[in-house]
Design the sequence.
């Protein structure tokens, strides 16, 4: 047991009080009648797992630790090579529906319904778990057992009739059983393709047509694909996608959900013209929250808070000084589909491209490590610890951040009044968001509540996210001191928010830290040491109504110090 200590600073006292309050809240929640729980339905993505489609020329997933905390970097910086068919993934109509201009048999307007065009309400709804475990492994090698309309009708007889707003999830427990590190992981996909093992259970085209009669628009399966092998994959895909359906492939842990009543959602990076994409699926069970979110999705009361990811946009930091830029966002074509007149593609991207997560390990070294910072950063650390107490350690990478940390009641604090408030002679500088500013908002709109997601509205990304040659206003000019920096969160405000029970802070600026490298690093040290996370690079924050629920989860990449994703709100 660690000895009790008395913090030497006000920030330390706030942190201690907040931890005590959080513990008391946890006990109160545990004693409640029906506790709200978040259920992760996503596969872990790592190089030694069968996370990608194994046939050539589909690229294998890679995570590259470009910089680690030490003499040449104050942060852990990662790049990802990630195909849309990686881990738990999302399919949308252009996966099988051809563009209308091609005038082909399978052409139609939905051939343009790419991932970046799907409306936010369609990503979620009421989970209706269709139990097809009796089909698992009940087929010859290389062949999928088929989920037919009668399996869905069996669900309806046991529970209720399906309707618009439901998310039909086919539960076979396939991924739970077979998604394993290699060499065992070959059983997940490769052994089926090589006809060494039975295929995964999947719906046939008639099942898709039946679901369309019920108005179902969103599906999911805990197998590797929604396409039965060996020869019904494309017919099943087209049978559903031609109706505008979208679906999760590679879900897992569906057995943790009740047959009905849970809220389910699948959120992933908003790739431009993506016919499929990497994502994060999760569900919420218990209490009043699921019904509220289900109702909002069904009524299409949803707002997308993420900008489209497109090559040529300034989606990642150019850094301060030559050679310090992050990996730019690149779309890499690798396989051409003649019928769809479209390339399959992967993406090479910084893990903080566009809307992304900031986990504690971004700026904190792992526990027990000895860090040798550059001399300038050592001086910053001394100043920080003198004022705020010891900088902490953390191994909490993206996949270790609890889902309920990045979801919660949306609390928007408008800080646009700070724009233009700095002296040009002090640039590069960002106006600082202080405890006083947050307290003024609380006085006007009511106190912050533990678990709120505090979202700072600056307007910066919406104003300046433009392609070249007009792209310098987002990052380059503020970092160079040619223009004022975006409003940024100060470390004092971080500790104040922690005291109020806030776990997640978000911004529609490029980042929470701002353009002053010393002040930015102190902000990220404060966030990490407080076991808080950030969500950066939002848009449409001004559209969020007073009562709304914020949803975000990063793609589940192991050992990642960032994490791309999509943020939405559902509102009453």
Sequence:
């Amino acid at each position: 047991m660690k000895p009790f200590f008395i913090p030497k600073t006000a920030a330390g006292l706030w942190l201690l009080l907040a931890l005590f309050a959080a513990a008391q809240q946890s006990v109160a929640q545990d004693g409640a009648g029906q506790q709200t729980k978040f259920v992760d339905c996503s596969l872990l993505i790592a190089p030694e797992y069968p996370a990608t489609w194994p046939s050539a020329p589909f690229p294998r997933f890679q995570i590259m630790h470009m910089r680690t905390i030490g003499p040449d970097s104050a942060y852990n910086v990662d790049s990802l090579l990630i195909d849309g068919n990686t881990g738990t993934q999302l399919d949308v109509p252009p996966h099988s529906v051809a563009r209308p201009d091609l005038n082909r048999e399978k052409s139609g307007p939905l051939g343009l319904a790419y991932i970046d065009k799907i409306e936010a309400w369609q990503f979620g709804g009421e989970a209706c778990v269709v139990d097809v475990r009796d089909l698992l492994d009940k087929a010859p090698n290389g062949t999928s057992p088929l989920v037919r309309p009668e399996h869905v009708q069996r669900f309806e007889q046991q529970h209720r009739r399906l309707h618009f707003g439901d998310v039909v999830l086919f539960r076979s427990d396939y991924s739970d059983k077979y998604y394993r590190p290699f060499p065992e992981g070959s059983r997940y996909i490769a052994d089926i393709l090589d006809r060494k093992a039975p295929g995964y259970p999947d719906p046939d085209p008639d099942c898709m047509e039946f679901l369309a009669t019920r108005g179902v628009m969103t599906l999911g399966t805990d197998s590797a694909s929604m396409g039965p092998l060996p020869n019904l994959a494309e017919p099943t895909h087209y049978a559903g996608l031609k109706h505008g359906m979208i679906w999760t492939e590679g879900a897992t842990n569906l057995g943790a959900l009740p047959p009905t009543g849970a809220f389910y959602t699948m959120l992933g990076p908003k790739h431009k013209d993506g016919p499929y994409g990497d994502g994060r699926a999760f569900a919420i069970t218990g209490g009043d929250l699921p019904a509220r979110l289900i109702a909002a999705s069904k009524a299409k009361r949803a707002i997308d808070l993420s900008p489209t990811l497109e090559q040529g946009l300034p989606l990642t930091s150019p850094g301060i000084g030559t050679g310090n830029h992050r990996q730019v966002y690149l779309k890499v074509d690798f396989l051409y589909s003649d019928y769809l007149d479209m390339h399959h593609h992967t993406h090479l991207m910084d893990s903080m491209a566009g809307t992304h997560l900031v986990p504690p390990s971004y700026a904190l070294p792992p526990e027990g490590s000895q860090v040798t910072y550059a001399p300038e950063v050592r001086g910053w650390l001394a100043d920080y610890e003198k004022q705020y107490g010891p900088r902490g350690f953390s191994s909490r990478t993206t996949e270790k951040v609890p889902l309920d940390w990045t979801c919660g009641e949306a609390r928007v604090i408008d800080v646009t009044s700070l724009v233009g408030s700095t002296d040009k002679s002090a640039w590069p500088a960002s106006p600082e968001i202080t405890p006083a500013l947050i307290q003024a908002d609380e006085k006007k709109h009511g106190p912050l509540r533990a678990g709120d997601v505090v979202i700072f509205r600056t307007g910066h990304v919406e104003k300046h996210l433009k392609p070249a040659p007009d792209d310098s206003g987002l990052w380059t000019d503020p970092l160079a001191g040619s223009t004022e920096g975006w409003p940024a969160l100060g470390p004092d405000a971080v500790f104040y928010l922690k005291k109020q029970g806030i776990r997640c802070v978000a911004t529609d600026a490029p980042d929470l830290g701002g353009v002053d490298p010393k002040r930015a690093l102190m902000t990220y040290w404060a966030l990490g040491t407080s076991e808080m996370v950030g969500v950066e690079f939002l848009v449409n924050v001004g559209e969020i109504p007073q009562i709304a629920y914020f949803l975000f989860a990063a793609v589940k990449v192991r050992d990642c110090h960032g994490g791309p994703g999509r943020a939405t709100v559902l509102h009453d």
Notes: The chain has a mean pLDDT of 94. The CA atoms of residues 309 and 516 lie 26 Å apart.
